[in-house]
Every structure is written in C-alpha cells, then in structure tokens.
Amino acid sequence: MYKDLNTPIRTILTPGPVEVDPRVLRVMSAPILGQFDPAFTDIMNEVMDMLRKLFKTDNQWAFPVDGTSRSGIEAMLCSVIEPGDRVLVPVFGRFGYLLMEICERYGAEVKAIHQEWGAVFDPKAVIQEMDDWKPDIVAMVHAETSTGCMQPLKEIGQACRERHLYFIVDAVASVGGVDVRVDEWFIDGLIAGTQKCLSVPAGMSPLTYNERIQKRIARRKKVERGIATEEELQQKAATFIKSNYFDLSMLQDYWGPRRLNHHTEATSMLYALREGLRLVLNEGLENRFERHKYHERALVSGLKAMGMELFGDTSAKLPTVTCIKIPDGADGDSVRRMLLDQFGIEIATSFGPLHGKILRVGTMGYSCRRENILTFLGAFEAVLIRHGILVEKGAALQAALDYYTNENKLSN
C-alpha cells in the first residue's frame, strides 16, 4: 500500500530549481477552470501583460510555453530557423552547447565561437565574427549558470539590428533576478524559465518576440488540419514550422483573441506563474534586483572570510549564482552529500570541464533570503572542517553578519 507523499524540508540553494514562494504554492490549489472560460482567459491576458512589464518590452507577444525552460528555447528556435539558415552561437558554458544542439536539429548551419569557461565575450569579438561569417541569426545565453557568468548583450543586439540579423537570447537564469531589457537591448526573441528567479515550479517557459520574428513565423505558418479554416488548408508554406507543439504561430493564435484550440493549458501552472509574476512586480523590479545583489554580497563576504576562492571573472559575475573553487583535498560530491544529509541544504556541482572543480550556490528568487545565506555559511564551514579542510573558523558568519549590520537596507 502506498503512503501519503511526505517530502523532506530542504533549503534549496541550487541554480534551479529553487524554493517556491508559499504564496505560489497556495494558488496552485485553486479550483480548475476550463481553458476557454472567460475567467481563465482573463488570467491569460493578465499573464501576458505582466510578462511585458517583466521583460521591459512593448512586444505584442509575451506568453508561456507549457514545458520546462528547454521547451521555450526549442519553440523559439524551431519557429524561427529555416533549413540552411546560418546561426552563430557564442559559447561560454554548457547552455551555449544546448543552443547549438537545437539549431542543428532544425537544419541550421551552425558556427560556434568559444570563450573559456569562467569568462564572457568581448562584444566586439562577437560582432567581428558576425561580419566575417555573415549569419542570419545570433543565438546566445545571457546568464550561464554552469559558470556563474553573465554576458553583456546591448552592444551585440544593436549590431544585430544594424545588420538585419535576428538576435535570440536564452535568459532562463536571469529574468526576475537581474535587469533584462528586451527592447533597449535590441533582442528579437527572448526565453525565460519559471523555476529559477521567478520562484515558480518548473513547467512553463515564458517568452517574448517582436514584430520582426512575428512576420518570419507568419510566412511559415501551418495550422493543423483538424482546427484549420478552409482558407488555411489552402495555404502552403514553403518551409513550414516542423514542430506542432512548439509552433509559435499556432501558440499565438491560442493566446490571442482567436483562442485556437491548440492544446489544453496547464491550468494550475498558469495560476502559479500569475502569482509569481504578481509578487515580482509588486516587489518592484529594481528592488528585486538589488535584493539579489545584497544577499550575494553577504554570501561572498562570508566565503572570502572563511578562506574560499571564487571561480570566474568577477567583473562578469552573475549575481544569482556564486561558484566556489573546491579546496585541495576535498571531495566536492562528499561535501554536497553531507550538506544535504546533515543540514538539509542542497547546492550544485557543475558540468563538463568544471565537474569536480567547483561548487555552485544559487541565490535566486524566494531562496535569496538572509536566513538561507547564514544557514549555508555555518553549515558549509562545519562540513569543510569535517572533511579536514583548514578554514577561518567562525569568520564566515561574522563577516556576513557584519555586512548585514552595516548595510541594513532590507528586512529579509
């Protein structure tokens, strides 16, 4: 006989997923509405309006794709890319390779340029490659959680616009935690996620795109036979969008006034997204960005006082992810396991060339709180001591407390 589900209480300090705000969990238990009930379509419209504010855009189209963040990335790329398109992907961590993978699967000719993990690109190097190779599309990650680095985008976006290229950005790890300006940075298509700085469960991927992309996907539109009009059945796009589920042209008809019956909306997840967005906007975007920087500074001050060395270019550091070099003689997986088993704290390792070399601490959304920073620093010190690592005992918590005392701007 199966028992009631009773999950353990954790302090989640990974770069995603993060702790879900209790107010988000509450609304997920609200009664289910039909997807074309006016009460539900009002919620859909509210979500679109709130996403525009979050993304700092006047785009008509801003809505979530049902699925994890990868679903939004795939929907954007498969809807935009036509076979033979040349796509330039600047790679400075794991998720640049994901962009390459998806572009290749939809028939693009992909060229990557590479930056050492732990650093970001000089925008001029990306622009020079654009001029040399002449791509149709530039696809780039904004915030690389695998390395804890954040790429400046405005200069690259402006260069793309001047050259009539499409600029598509994976901002899954940054939206809601750091400033993202879709229109000002000349971003044509941007993808976000729910399970990071928005503090909503994984399961939706908000995105937005401008009129340039809207016109491109309109040329490739193919409405499925069971719901198409007679006129639409006669239309034959030369290179129609190959995915049905991720077809942005049909999804925008679902989210627009037509309410095309494309799929059944993930009702409770949309409730969760609406509440998460409401909390973000009510906090105030600039206040929220400052909160993430505030607790990041406390965390870093504690780690440095303990004697830890951070990984990566500090001038390009992502405020919501802190990467710690694993001290010589320590087993990173053992450290993580003891933090989880003894203290109920989860942090992350990394991927590829950084696996076993760094630990990653995520301070995103609802997880980004004073009590989590202080609890982690105390537990991390204790675990390192148990692993025979020499640290400045007691210094981490005192340094963080000193910071909070001297910079007492926020109540949590």
Short description:
This protein has 412 residues and is α/β, with parallel strands linked by helices.
Kindly state the percentage of residues in helix. Answer: 40-55%
Portion in strands: 5-15%
Average residue-wise pLDDT: 96
Name the CATH class of the largest domain.
Answer: Alpha Beta
Largest sheet: 7 strands, mixed
**Major sheet strand order:** 2-10-9-8-5-3-4
Please work out how many helical segments DSSP would assign. 14
Q: Any idea what the CATH superfamily of the largest domain is called?
A: Type I PLP-dependent aspartate aminotransferase-like (Major domain)
- The ordered H/E elements are EHHEHEHEHEEEHEEEHHHHHEHEEHH
Q: CATH topology of the largest domain, anyone? A: Aspartate Aminotransferase, domain 2
> Count of DSSP E strands?
13
Instruction: Please tell me how large the radius of gyration is.
Output: 22 Å
Number of domains: 2
Structural class: alpha/beta
Poorly predicted parts: none
Gross CATH architecture of the largest domain: 3-Layer(aba) Sandwich
For the record, give the distance between the C-alpha atoms at the N and C termini, rounded to a whole number: 43 Å
